[in-house]
User: Which sequence fits this backbone?
């Protein structure tokens, strides 16, 4: 062993990993998978038989959970795929700023001001209309792989 000190510069964040490995053959419909570095929800899985050279293949059709784009991937069923850690959190809506950002109340009483309004027109109009009418709104924020987006809305009654 040497007496030298080694210093390593870490470029990763100290939090948990953004993904975890799972065998392709174990990923099912309605599960999650990473395709082309995007977190996706699996909408269709088909498995081909083993061919002349061994591996059965899994064909995944999945929808990006943030932008709704359809992505496909074919992976040998014995190989590992990345699966994103997907979290859903509810926050109470406090305010909507002119530049399209929302102010949300977290469970511990702090505010979260770094989220934009969703791009989905239907959800966007529901949020703006409900807020304009003075309703108490709770938004569901989905987060995966360092991205966050409002994905659902609940009306918990008038203020």
Assistant:
């Amino acid at each position: 062993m040497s007496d030298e000190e080694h210093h390593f510069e870490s470029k990763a964040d100290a939090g948990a990993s953004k993904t975890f490995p799972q065998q392709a053959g174990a990923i099912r419909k309605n599960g999650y998978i990473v395709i082309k570095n995007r977190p996706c929800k699996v909408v269709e899985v088909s498995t081909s038989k083993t061919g002349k050279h061994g591996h059965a293949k899994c064909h995944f059709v999945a929808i990006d959970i943030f932008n709704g784009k359809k992505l496909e991937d074919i992976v040998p069923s014995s190989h590992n795929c990345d699966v994103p850690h997907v979290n859903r959190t509810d926050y109470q809506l406090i305010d909507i700023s002119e530049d399209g950002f929302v102010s949300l109340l977290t469970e511990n009483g702090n505010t979260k001001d770094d989220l934009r309004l969703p791009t989905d027109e239907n959800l966007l109009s529901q949020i703006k209309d409900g807020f304009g009418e003075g309703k108490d709104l709770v938004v569901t924020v989905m987060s995966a792989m360092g991205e966050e987006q409002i994905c659902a809305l609940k009306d918990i009654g008038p203020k």
Remarks:
- The helical segments are 121-132.
- Residues 7-15 have pLDDT under 50 and may be disordered.
- The two ends are 68 Å apart (CA to CA).
- The chain is about 10% helix and 50% strand.
